[in-house]
Specification:
The structure is a single chain. The protein is of the alpha+beta class. Among the domains are: 166 residues, Roll (Nuclear Transport Factor 2, Chain: A), CATH 3.10.450; 60 residues. Helix content is 48%, strand content 21%. It has 8 helices and 8 strands. Strands 1, 2, 3, 4, 5, 6, 7 and 8 form an 8-stranded mixed β-sheet that branches. β4 and β5 form a beta hairpin. α3 runs antiparallel to α4 and α6 runs antiparallel to α7. The chain starts with a helix and ends with a strand.
Length: 328
């Protein structure tokens, strides 16, 4: 019995390890996922947009080291928690009275001890309620105190903020590229980065890169990929192409059409400009056998829609290049 149990346990462990390795290999080899670099915002979530309103999948593979500073920067700082009544002076007093009542119950005579405990509890509740009411009263008075002196300043700041927001909406409305809806803000800037404004020529470049990268990938044109994407992205895309070739497959992407797009955020880090855009596009995306040309995945007769977040980068005012892709 012991021998059979040991063999069964060893067999189960071997099967579990084998399935785990297959799952990991599939996860690494599949086309898609989120990979690349977004500078200091690599491990931050891009703001939601009209095109991609749902939360975006975080970057899974990147050569940018994750020091944890970005995650800490985007998490809201928790304010000091107010101690509850049972954890402060009131809690100490309540616990003392309760303990006294219990001792009275244990050493008292029948219901006399129990009545003594209830008496202590009633006194504790009355005293605790009085203390809580007094604390709330003093807090409300202190909160209302400085309000009249700051009311005018607060209104002025709110008015200036609304004017800036209106100006930003008017600037975004000047983008007339088909499909692009403008700039959407909302994320807190990373340390060492500044927000920038994009021009129509930038949006034209993003739309052209969408087509160039997809078609170059489908043609397995490594030279075209090196012109359109960063060296890091070249390594990831080349890895996928090599994996397809090893399996005897070829991924073809044609008829790329941008349907809708929004700029989620754009910023500068030192001598580099970054911009993340939510892109919804359709394309004919099929996988074929290299030898026979048979379609093994996708539909060659009907285009499919895809929504992704593409991050572009340019250095010292050079041409934009694709630096990251995230699944929406």
């Amino acid at each position: 019995m012991t021998s059979r149990t040991s063999r069964f346990a060893a067999l189960f462990a071997g099967l579990f390890l084998a399935f785990s390795m297959v799952a990991i290999d599939h996860a690494e080899a599949r086309r898609g996922g989120s990979f690349g670099s977004r500078g200091m915002r690599t491990f931050q979530s891009a703001p939601p947009t009209r095109t991609a309103p749902a939360p975006t999948a975080p970057v899974e593979r990147s050569m940018t080291p994750n020091t944890g500073a970005n995650n800490a920067a985007q998490q809201p700082q928790a304010g000091p928690q107010r101690p509850g009544f049972m954890s402060g002076f009131g809690g100490t007093m309540m616990r003392g009275l309760l303990l006294g009542g219990l001792i009275g119950l244990l050493v008292g005579q029948g219901f006399g001890g129990l009545a003594g405990m209830f008496g202590f509890l009633l006194q504790a509740l009355l005293i605790g309620g009085t203390i809580m009411l007094a604390i709330r009263f003093f807090r409300s008075q202190s909160a209302r105190g400085p309000a009249p002196a700051l009311a005018g300043v607060g209104n002025a700041q709110a008015s200036r903020f609304e004017n800036r927001a209106t100006a930003g909406q008017q600037t975004a409305g000047s983008f007339t590229i088909p499909g692009f809806g403008g700039v959407s803000g909302g994320s807190s800037p990373a340390i060492g980065s500044d927000e920038i404004t994009l021009a129509q020529t930038d949006l034209d470049a993003f739309q052209q890169l969408l087509t160039d990268v997809q078609e170059a990938f489908g043609r397995e044109d490594h030279a075209a990929l090196r012109r359109a994407v960063t060296p890091e992205m070249v390594s990831y895309l080349s890895e996928e192409l090599a994996d397809n070739a090893q399996k005897g497959l070829r991924n073809e992407v044609t008829d790329v059409t941008l349907l809708q797009a929004d700029v989620a955020e754009s910023w500068r880090e030192d001598d580099r400009d970054y911009a993340t855009a939510a892109l919804r596009y359709e394309s004919r995306d099929v996988t074929r056998e290299r030898a026979s040309g048979k379609v093994v995945a996708g539909d060659d007769d009907h285009p499919t829609e895809t929504t992704e977040l593409w991050t572009f980068v340019r250095e010292n005012g050079s041409n934009w290049k694709l630096s990251a892709i995230q699944q929406a």
